[in-house]
């Protein structure tokens, strides 16, 4: 019966259509039996469909991808069990990716989108609330800073993502309790939104006054990638600490794209675009044009594309880390997602992120009811958007380039930073914090002097401390 | 945190570890857990009213006694009472001798009451009702006169208390249909609406269409209301956000405010353990279908043939569609005893007519034989029942999928963690893992002999493999022997010994092994790699197959250290 299926003409091989075609016609839509699958079977089937679909997207057979997406739509649900939820966001991302091959349609569809900064902040708050990850990162960061700043009279802290005053309130209290007395403290917060920085300034100044610590807050309204290092106003004579919580990976964007472009890239500018539209592995025409126009990287494409090491080497990241290194911080604490979502191919990224987000969704499942609106928001507005970014975006747009700890280790090492093993006391505090979480799925592992925060035994986030090598 | 789901999760996580202990432990935990849950998660029916305790005393009262309001009459003033106790208390007022029944400490024998109406279901002792008031009300409601009439809506009731209850709410909640009818109960209103709407649709000229517009307007008003309430909700949400922003302001101790408030409520939410395996012929039918497609299409076999070398799977090319195709086939094939069982059921019932529908004889000459062979092959694996596992976490599902081979990843070690390990570890633990992996939490039962179970699995594999070999012959002469026999003999006719042999064959063939069970994931990976000539691989598979052909028993193959 599937032989006759019309869609087989789309691809060279009828077999390729097989799984979809065999299910789609003839049984009466909409696949009544799919509804009868039980949770586990459905989950497994969803995984299978997702991968099948991603394959089709990767190879550009959109008809088949469409069939797969249709099938998934009958099984997935953002309000269902974990796998149903995950599948919803991954399919959305895959569909987004397909859509991006038609930049006009894509832009038109998104032209009226309202992005509410307040909502985003709210969702990040929820992430902070519902998960222990940021808290653990904060505790460890603060402990590392306190240890590194022992005896320092002038302390300057640069927060590359100054969204959460809680961390620094805690540090203020730590410092005020120092036996040698509190230092003169300056915190420089980098954030895109002025309001967030204002809010932070307000809280921290108040707290510092209460604790009677000489304190100054220096807001820098900027995207991290556009950060002008001079604005950090690091002065000689002060001890510098840098805190980066889930920020560094975004610097990998844009020039990480270099390796992704095939040698064909320059030709695209000459109007060879029709075939490219179906080449889903590549970035979309619009992006390519945009990027090539903006930064003249296109000439260096070919040299970069061949090197397997190129994923580690990233010009922009090198520049940024060099700049930070130039500030010679006494300590720099880096927290990152511990999963490789920066793979070259869509399939790599998909399967890795599937695992990563499955674990995060499982965390939520264990903590919040399925009907929780907050849970839905975190899943949709935070994880869903990240997934979309990982799956659907390429080039400079793809910001969520999470990489594993060993990758960061190598990269930071190359940039002239030496690892500072986290102290026993940091670990202890992290563990204690997790114990207080009344959920035994979380744990921390020590890895080469760094901390990896896990759900069950899936590593999710890493925290590491660094200093300038001399 | 609830205890069931995490424990299930940990068992799956357990698989990642290399040591055997872990595996054993995990196996045992699976088997214990699988023994526990009930097999029949039937839709729970409401208990029929009146299915009394069999040893209760059955009492049949006459309609008159049932309807008598005041059975206990005072001999002095003729006042009637509903209860004897009340009469006794009343007698006290007349200075008559009175006696209150004391509560007896010994257990009173339960009484059940029959409905005097012979046509009533509760007339039968097996459906007698449990209390006197109940039977009285029942008799009045169902078989009595409706004496009490609501003044407002004229609805009549037989039991006074029903009428009272109605009177309290009558008119307070009104449902007025567009046609003008008034309802006091929402359900009757809705029932009416269904009819009324249908009528309205039939006659487009109906004047009520105007009023429907009105109701639409009314409806949209409602929407507005909804919106504004949403807005207020938003405000509400902003409010807590403010709280969150201020979070920690109370903290006097160092990290106190970093330590999260425990969410007692959120953790107490029980994980639903959904009914998992209800053998359903329909479902089975489809699974069967997929299964067959997977097995019978020719391309997937290339995938299978490529499986053997797990080690060479590092190439990065995106997977071919064939891989995923194969995937599907295997997915359903190894989808555990459940799928197989179901499919077998249907297969047996439908006498293999189903199969023929899905075979493509033109494309694949073996189709017929395999198709008919399937059911007989599966017979051996039929006995197993599949108890329902608890709800699986997404992580566990992914791991399971990876083990079953429906997950693909070319470079990521984590995806293949299970598989990666297996390629280096000894074949025995490998087997243990693959076994538990592919049979999963579903079908492992302690009382099932491993071998027995295995056989079921094996058979399906043997089936798959043999068709590979069959396919192989078509292309490659070196397959000669088996494939010849494969093609000429029907599976169904094959006697046990041959089956065994066949089976060990396929195991041998897969060699690095495990391969077939776990290796599927690897196979896909390879497919992604895609760089190899299939011919070479087949040759490869063959040569590694040779030495093991002699071992007729699957066990031996597994125990054979050479297999590593």
Give a verbal description of the structure:
The complex is a heterodimer of chains A (470) and B (564). Chain A is 49% helix and 13% strand. Chain A is an alpha/beta fold and 470 residues long. In chain A, helix 9 links the parallel strand 2 (184-191) and strand 3. In chain B, the strands form four sheets. Chain B has a two-stranded parallel sheet. In chain B, strands 2-3 form a two-stranded antiparallel sheet. In chain B, strands 5-6 form a two-stranded antiparallel ribbon. At the A-B interface, helix 1, helix 2, helix 4, helix 6 and helix 7 of A face helix 1, helix 8, helix 9, helix 10 and helix 12 of B.
Kindly report the oligomeric state of this protein: heterodimer
The profile of the biggest β sheet of chain A is: 9 strands, mixed
Mean pLDDT of chain A: 81
Radius of gyration of chain A equals 24 Å
Low-confidence stretches of chain A: 1-29, 255-312
The main sheet of chain B orders its strands as: 1-4
Uncertain spans of chain B: 1-44, 202-389, 406-564
Strand content of chain B: under 5%
**Biggest sheet layout of chain B:** 2 strands, parallel
SS field, number of helical segments of chain B: 24
- Secondary structure class of chain A reads alpha/beta
The fraction of residues assigned to DSSP E strands of chain A is 5-15%
């Amino acid at each position: 019966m599937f032989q006759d299926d019309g869609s087989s003409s789309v691809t060279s091989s009828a077999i390729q259509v097989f799984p979809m075609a065999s299910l789609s016609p003839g049984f009466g839509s909409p696949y009544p039996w799919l509804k009868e699958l039980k949770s586990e079977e459905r989950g497994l089937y969803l995984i299978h469909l997702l991968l099948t679909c991603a394959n089709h997207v990767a190879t550009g057979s959109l008809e088949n991808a469409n069939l797969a997406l249709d099938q998934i739509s009958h099984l997935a649900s953002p309000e269902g069990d974990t796998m149903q939820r995950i599948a919803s966001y991954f399919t959305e991302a895959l569909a987004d990716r397909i859509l991006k091959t038609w930049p006009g349609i894509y832009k038109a569809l998104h032209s009226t989108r309202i992005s509410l900064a307040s909502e985003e902040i709210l969702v990040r708050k929820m992430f902070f609330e519902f998960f222990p990850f940021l808290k653990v990162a904060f505790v460890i960061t603060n402990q590392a800073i306190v240890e590194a700043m022992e005896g320092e009279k002038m302390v300057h802290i640069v927060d590359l993502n100054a969204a959460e005053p809680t961390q620094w309130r805690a540090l203020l209290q730590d410092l005020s309790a120092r036996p040698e007395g509190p230092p003169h403290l300056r915190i420089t917060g980098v954030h895109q939104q002025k309001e967030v920085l204002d809010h932070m300034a307000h809280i921290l100044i108040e707290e510092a006054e209460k604790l009677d610590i000489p304190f100054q807050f220096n807001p820098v309204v900027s995207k991290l990638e556009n950060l002008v290092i001079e604005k950090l106003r690091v002065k000689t004579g002060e001890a510098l600490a840098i805190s980066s919580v889930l920020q560094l990976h975004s610097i990998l964007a844009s020039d990480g794209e270099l390796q992704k472009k095939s040698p064909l890239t320059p030709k695209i500018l000459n109007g060879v675009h029709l075939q490219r539209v179906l080449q889903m592995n590549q970035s979309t025409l619009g992006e390519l044009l945009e990027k090539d126009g903006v930064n003249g990287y296109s000439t260096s494409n070919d040299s970069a594309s061949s090197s397997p090491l190129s994923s580690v080497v990233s010009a922009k990241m090198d520049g940024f880390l060099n700049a930070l290194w130039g500030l010679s911080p006494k300590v720099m604490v880096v927290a990152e997602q511990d999963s490789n979502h920066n793979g070259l191919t869509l399939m790599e990224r998909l399967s890795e992120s599937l695992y990563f987000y499955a674990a995060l969704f499982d965390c939520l499942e264990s903590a919040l009811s399925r009907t929780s609106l907050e849970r839905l928001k975190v899943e949709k507005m935070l994880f869903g958007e990240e997934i979309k970014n990982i799956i659907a975006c390429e080039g400079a747009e793809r910001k969520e380039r999470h990489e594993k700890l060993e990758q960061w280790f190598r990269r930071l090492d190359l940039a002239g930073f030496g690892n500072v093993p986290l102290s026993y006391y940091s670990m202890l505090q992290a563990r204690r914090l997790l114990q207080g979480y009344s959920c035994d799925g979380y744990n921390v592992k020590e890895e080469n002097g760094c901390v990896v925060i896990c759900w069950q035994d899936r590593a999710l986030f890493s925290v590491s401390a660094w200093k300038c090598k001399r | 945190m609830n205890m069931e789901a995490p424990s299930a999760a940990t068992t799956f996580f357990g698989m990642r570890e290399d040591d055997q202990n872990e595996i054993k432990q995990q196996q045992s935990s699976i088997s214990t857990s699988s023994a526990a849950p009930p097999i029949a998660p039937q839709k729970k029916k409401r208990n029929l009213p009146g299915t009394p305790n069999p040893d209760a005393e059955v009492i049949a009262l006459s309609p008159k006694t049932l309807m008598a309001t005041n059975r206990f009459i005072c001999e002095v003033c003729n006042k009637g009472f509903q209860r004897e106790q009340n009469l006794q208390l009343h007698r006290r007022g007349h200075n008559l001798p009175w006696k209150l029944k004391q509560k007896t400490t010994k257990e009173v024998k339960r009484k059940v009451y029959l409905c005097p109406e012979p046509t009533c279901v509760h007339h039968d002792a097996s459906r007698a009702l449990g209390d006197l008031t109940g039977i009285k009300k029942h008799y009045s409601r169902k078989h009595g006169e409706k004496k009490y009439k609501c003044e407002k809506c004229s609805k009549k009731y037989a039991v006074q208390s029903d009428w009272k209850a109605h009177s309290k709410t009558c008119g307070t909640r009104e449902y007025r249909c567009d046609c003008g009818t008034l309802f006091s109960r929402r359900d009757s209103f809705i029932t009416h609406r269904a009819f009324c709407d249908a009528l309205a649709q039939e006659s487009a000229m109906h004047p009520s269409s105007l009023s429907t517009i009105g109701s639409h307007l009314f409806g949209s008003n409602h929407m507005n209301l909804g919106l504004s309430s949403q807005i207020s909700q938003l405000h509400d949400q902003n409010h807590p956000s403010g709280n969150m922003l201020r979070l920690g302001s109370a903290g006097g101790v160092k990290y106190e405010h970093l330590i999260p408030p425990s969410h007692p409520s959120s953790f107490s939410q029980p994980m639903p353990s959904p009914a998992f395996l209800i053998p359903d012929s329909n479902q089975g039918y489809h699974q069967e279908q997929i299964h067959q497609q997977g097995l019978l299409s020719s391309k997937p076999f290339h995938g299978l043939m490529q499986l053997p070398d797990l080690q060479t799977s590092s190439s990065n090319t995106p997977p071919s569609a064939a891989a995923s195709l194969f995937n599907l086939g295997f997915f359903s094939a190894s989808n555990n005893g459940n799928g197989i069982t179901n499919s077998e059921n249907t297969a047996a019932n439908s006498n293999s007519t189903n199969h023929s529908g899905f075979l493509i004889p033109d494309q694949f000459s073996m189709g017929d034989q395999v198709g008919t062979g399937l059911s007989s092959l599966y017979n051996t694996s039929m006995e197993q029942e599949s108890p329902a596992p608890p709800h699986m976490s997404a992580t566990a599902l992914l791991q399971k999928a990876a083990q079953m081979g429906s997950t693909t990843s070319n470079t990521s070690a984590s995806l293949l963690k299970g598989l990666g390990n297996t390629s280096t570890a000894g074949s025995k633990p490998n087997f243990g893992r693959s076994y538990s992996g592919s049979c999963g939490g579903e079908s492992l039962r302690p009382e099932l002999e491993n071998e027995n179970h295995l056989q079921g699995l094996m058979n399906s594999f043997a089936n798959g493999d043999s068709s590979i070999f069959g396919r192989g012959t078509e292309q490659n002469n070196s397959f000669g022997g088996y494939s010849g026999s494969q093609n000429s003999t029907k599976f169904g006719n094959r006697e046990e010994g041959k089956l065994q042999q066949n089976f060990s064959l396929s195991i041998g063939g897969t060699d690095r092994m495990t391969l077939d069970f776990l290796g599927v994931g690897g196979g896909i990976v390879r497919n992604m790699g895609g760089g190899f000539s299939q011919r070479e691989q087949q040759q490869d598979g063959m040569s590694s197959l040779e030495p093991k052909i002699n071992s007729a028993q699957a066990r031996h193959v597994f125990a054979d250290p050479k297999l590593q």
